[in-house]
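S.,

Sequence below, as promised.
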Amino acid sequence: QVRLVESGGGLVQAGGSLRLSCAASGRTFSRAAMGWFRQAPGKEREFVAVITKNGGNTYYADSVTGRFTISRDNAKNTVYLQMNFLKPEDTAVYYCAGCDAYSSSYYLKRHAYYDDWGQGTQVTVSS
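The prediction came back faster than expected:
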């Protein structure tokens, strides 16, 4: 059974930074693309960023491009999301997820194609 545990969320002022971490256990981490999604109250879960299994490709939502950076350390079974220049509209619960069946960005940007999910970590950005 795969277990994903996010950490690093919190309250930050607009313009500030946070780094989220997601530690994976119970699978061969390096075989899975790892993504970050977020869900704000009353809204659909949306794609934020994804990194392919070998770290060779990354994809971002337009709303976070240039501000967020996804990375992974396969030796530590951990994926990170560095978030800079945070805005109030970034407020949401952030989830990490793993996908080992697809490598195309078309699928990796859609939460329905992910197999495993963490419990989420709250990010709140005050104005």
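The mean pLDDT is 95.

Coffee later?
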